Amino acid sequence: MVIERIPNGYHVEVLSDVERHRDFVANSNHRDLYACIDLVTDRAVRQLHDWKERIRGAKKHIRGSRRRG
Predict the structure, then answer these.
(1) What is the model's pLDDT at position 18?
(2) Distance of CA 67 to the CA centre of its chain
(3) Predicted pLDDT at 11
(4) pLDDT on residue 56
(5) What pLDDT, in 10s, does the model give residues 19-50?
(6) CB-based contacts of 38, cutoff 8 Å, min separation 6
(7) Using CA atoms, how far apart are residues 8 and 44, in angstroms rounded to an integer?
(8) What domains lie within the chain, and their CATH numbers?
(9) 3 has which bridge partners?
(10) Which of 53, 9, 50 is nearest to 26 (CA)?
């Protein structure tokens, strides 16, 4: 997490290292530091959640496509 003071408030950046994928980056600018951290946390969680759902969907699709018998 990187926190910077900018002229009109704060800039927060979160880098999430994920296996077999490029790093996820979430950024936020806000006048209030705590609001900025809250916003960037929500964005990072959403990115990771969406990626996890894509992986789960792909695994279900692969499992469901096999024929038994």
Answers:
(1) 87
(2) 35
(3) 97
(4) 86
(5) 888 999 999 999 999 999 999 999 999 999 99
(6) none
(7) 23
(8) 2-64 (3.30.160.100)
(9) 12
(10) 50
